[in-house]
TrEMBL record:
Residues 22-260 form the Aminoglycoside phosphotransferase domain. InterPro entries: ACAD10_11_N, AGP_Transferase, Aminoglycoside_PTrfase, Kinase-like_dom_sf. This is Unannotated protein. Pfam families: APH (PF01636). CDD domains: ACAD10_11_N-like (cd05154). It comes from freshwater metagenome.
Length: 313
């Protein structure tokens, strides 16, 4: 759909609003993102890309529940899974001003003040998210991710000895089942919007599911999301800062060994997800230079797993 056709269609789904300044934004492996203005209000459009078979209606529901729970998220203005409106399932969101590029958040002087309390901001946002009643989003699924990613890796038919070692470690050290709650599934640098004042919005909810809340803490600490920093929590904070702030906000103690288990699983998952995204490009399911390039990161995760299993994060 050409930009002028998309603008006209947006006007229709927004009740005849005047749509101007439509521009496509870069980034996003599973969503096509556009910025535009409707009747002088800045908004964001996200459309589902070809090859992504997930039900976007679940994402709408989670975003609305998170907004109601006080999690900093964009407001859902309108959304639909009917492709007849905009050519694909879509959602129109309020525009949140801020920065998502990790190297800028980690290094620029503009965010120096925010960096002093971002770890606590993350903890509070996660505590609010994990307080959501799972019954409010009944379409969310719960899966055994060790089994899930074991099956995914096997389906490719390629040997990855480092991943096999990680699977063996995860099975031997699996923690008892914790409480089940709404989990973001991809809470990390790159999916958060930050301003000089701190956390402004949590983005990209397509991987949300029901699971152990420690999964989100572990994923936030995966080495890939530190972007070269030595600090383990998103390249910004220390484990004790995150665990203490989360315990205070959520009213539950954090077991560091359980978070470490999820951190190892997160590293393994990201390595396998890199293969998955590259396969989408190779097979023609979703042709994208970005998806193709992600395949080069598989070896990084194999290296990070060796460090993790050796206790040398």
């Amino acid at each position: 759909m050409a930009a002028n056709e998309l603008a006209a269609s947006l006007s229709v789904v927004l009740g005849g609003a005047t749509v101007t300044d439509l521009a496509r934004l870069t980034g996003g492996a599973s969503r096509e993102t556009w910025r535009f203005v409707a009747d002088d209000r800045p908004l964001i459009l996200q459309r589902q890309r070809g090859g992504d078979v997930r039900d976007m209606a679940t994402e709408f529901a989670v975003l609305r529940a998170a907004h109601a729970a006080g999690v900093p998220v964009p407001e859902v203005i309108t959304a639909s899974t009917d492709p007849s409106g905009l050519g694909a399932a879509y959602m129109v969101l309020s525009h949140v001003d801020g920065e998502t590029i990790a190297r800028k958040i980690l290094r620029d002087e503009t965010f120096a003040g925010a960096r002093t309390h971002l770890t606590a901001d993350f903890a509070r946002a996660l505590a609010r998210l994990h307080s959501i009643d799972t019954a409010s989003v009944p379409s969310l699924q719960s899966t055994d991710q060790v089994v899930q990613y074991r099956q995914v890796l096997d389906s490719f038919g390629d040997p990855h000895p480092a991943f096999e070692l990680a699977f063996r470690w995860l099975e031997r050290h699996r923690p008892p089942t914790g409480r089940q709650c709404v989990v973001h599934g991809d809470f990390r640098m790159g999916n958060i919007m930050v301003g000089p004042d701190g956390l402004r919005a949590v983005l990209d909810w397509e991987l949300s599911h029901v699971g152990d809340p420690m999964e989100d803490l572990g994923w936030l600490c995966v080495k890939a999301w530190r972007f070269g920093s030595r600090k383990p929590v998103a390249g910004i904070g220390e484990y004790d800062e995150l665990f203490g702030a989360y315990a205070q906000a959520a009213g539950v103690d954090v077991d560091p060994d359980v978070v470490r288990w999820w951190e190892v699983l997160g590293t393994l998952k990201w390595g396998i997800m890199c293969i998955m995204q590259t396969q989408s490009h190779i097979t023609g399911l979703a042709r994208s230079h970005e998806l193709a390039a992600i395949g080069r990161r598989v070896c990084e995760n194999e290296h990070d797993l060796f460090l993790a299993l050796d206790g040398r994060w």
